[in-house]
Recover the amino acids of this structure.
């Protein structure tokens, strides 16, 4: 049986408990005690559909779920909600492959995991005889919020509360969230940035008095953020899918190494790639692409993680993050699974805003290559790829493709490389249009229209359906008031 343990102590739980809890009680994140190995040959996986591959991976990592339950979760998650049967198309443009993870309901890669998380969580509640109603508490840099809302809206015996940085998300991202209809949802703008939202959410999670009160009212918190194992594990699947798709097409031999370039914020997506490698996927380099908020680039180049720096609002808002939560899991692994040492480093991050790793730990980071792209480089990458291949990438993906260019200028590496494409360009149409056509006139919907004219790609339903939708969530608060918002929504004072 698989066990997950906290990065900060010896707490151990089953996979379904890890999904239910989100975070360990000591503030640590759950990590697999032992990473299982992929036990089906790649040539055989290459014959399978996305859902079937998902089953082969999920059953390794979530082995307390019955196979019926897992299949139920998978086949309800990866269905017609996606606008393509492939679920995650892999296309070759220029000298790289693009793994398009934006064909789900909210047109960003968060859908890949958040389409299945509600099923995994309600199943886990049943398996563990949970009596309380689950309250999903979420901080979002823009995309998790809507993807989690879309997954949990209307789901029986759950409520979902989303906090987003009021001025730190794109107009489309915001509209997607504030128009969410169902009564079990609450969306609140926060006067602050993503790190403020995430820190306050973590503090609410960790307030033992509040948790006690909550339980008396019949509620229990969980998380839909990428700290939840139920997000991480489904994200491993598409790395395997991309690899075996290349095998199937004859682009690589089974066993041949490839690279992935991952546009990174909270370090969730790229950590899933790391687990895929540890599970046996032949990955050479994981290129960690940051935007102007290049705290991870600096970490990989110096071994010092330091969040004491200016925070930039960029064209890739979902990556505007200075505290990359999931890095804690990697830190834990490179300490040689030393919870005490991880706890010490995280305490230093909490009090000093920084920590430094040993050279021995740095040695174990060789799979990773840090790179970053500034605002101009990002816009340039969009226009260059459009003019060369008539292919439009979004701003986050463009950070990755610009980072890959930089990598190639430094390192002679001819291995096939997959750029993880995390959002539809329609979600960030004004910035994308600025890159391709310069500053154009009009509001965001006119820019979407112009992008449609120019790319020929159909406007996704996710965009067209919110244009005239009524705004239902108008609440704005300070980070210090977030706990009160939760209290009010759950009617805890009555
Ligand atoms: C969330 C997000 C990212 C960053 O992913 P992490 O798992 O937080 O590193 C990149 N691009 C887009 C479009 C996103 O929504």
């Amino acid at each position: 049986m698989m066990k997950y343990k906290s990065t900060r102590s010896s707490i151990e739980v089953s996979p379904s408990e890890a999904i239910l809890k989100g975070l360990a009680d000591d503030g640590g994140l759950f990590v697999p005690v032992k990473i299982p190995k992929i036990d089906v040959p790649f040539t055989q996986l290459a014959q399978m559909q996305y859902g079937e591959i998902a089953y082969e991976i999920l059953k390794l990592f979530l082995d307390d779920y019955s196979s019926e339950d897992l299949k139920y979760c998978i086949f309800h998650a990866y269905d017609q909600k996606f606008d393509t049967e492939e679920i995650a198309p892999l296309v070759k443009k220029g000298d790289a492959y693009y793994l398009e993870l934006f064909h789900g309901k909210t047109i960003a890669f968060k859908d890949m995991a958040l389409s299945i998380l509600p099923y995994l969580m309600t199943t886990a509640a049943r398996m563990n005889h949970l009596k309380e109603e689950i309250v999903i508490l979420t901080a979002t840099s823009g995309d998790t919020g809507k993807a989690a809302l879309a997954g949990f809206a209307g789901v029986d015996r759950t409520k979902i509360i989303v906090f987003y940085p009021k001025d730190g998300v794109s107009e489309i991202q915001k509209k997607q969230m504030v128009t969410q209809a169902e009564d079990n949802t609450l969306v609140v703008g926060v006067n602050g940035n993503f790190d403020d939202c995430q820190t306050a959410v973590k503090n609410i999670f960790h307030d033992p008095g509040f948790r006690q009160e909550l339980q008396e009212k019949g509620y229990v918190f969980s998380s839909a953020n990428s700290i939840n194992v139920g997000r991480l594990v489904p994200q491993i699947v598409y790395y395997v899918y991309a690899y075996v798709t290349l095998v199937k097409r004859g682009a690589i031999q089974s066993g041949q190494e490839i690279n992935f370039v991952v546009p990174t914020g909270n370090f969730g997506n790229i950590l899933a790639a790391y687990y895929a490698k540890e599970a046996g996927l032949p990955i050479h380099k994981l290129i960690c692409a940051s935007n102007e908020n290049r705290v991870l680039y600096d970490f990989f180049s110096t071994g010092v993680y330091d969040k004491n720096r200016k925070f930039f609002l960029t064209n890739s808002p979902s990556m505007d993050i200075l505290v990359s939560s999931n890095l804690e899991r990697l830190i834990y692994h490179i300490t040689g699974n030393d919870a005490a040492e991880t706890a010490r480093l995280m305490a230093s991050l909490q009090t000093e805003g920084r920590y430094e790793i040993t050279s021995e730990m740095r040695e174990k980071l060789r799979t990773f290559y840090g790179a970053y792209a500034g605002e101009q480089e990002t816009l340039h990458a969009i226009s260059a790829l459009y003019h060369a291949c008539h292919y439009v990438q979004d701003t986050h993906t463009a950070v990755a493709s610009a980072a890959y260019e930089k990598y190639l200028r430094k390192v002679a590496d001819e291995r096939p490389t997959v750029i993880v494409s995390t959002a539809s360009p329609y979600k960030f149409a004004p910035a994308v249009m600025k890159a391709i056509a310069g500053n154009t006139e009009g509001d965001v919907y006119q820019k979407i229209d112009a992008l449609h004219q120019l790319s020929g790609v159909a406007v996704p339903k996710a965009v067209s359906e919110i244009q005239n939708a009524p705004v239902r969530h108008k609440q704005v608060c300070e980070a210090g008031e977030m706990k009160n918002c939760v209290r009010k929504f759950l009617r805890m004072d009555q």
Q: What stands out?
A: Residues 108-110, 143, 226, 263-269, 318-319, 396, 422-423 surround pyridoxal-5'-phosphate (CB under 6 Å). The longest strand covers residues 158-165. The chain has a mean pLDDT of 96.
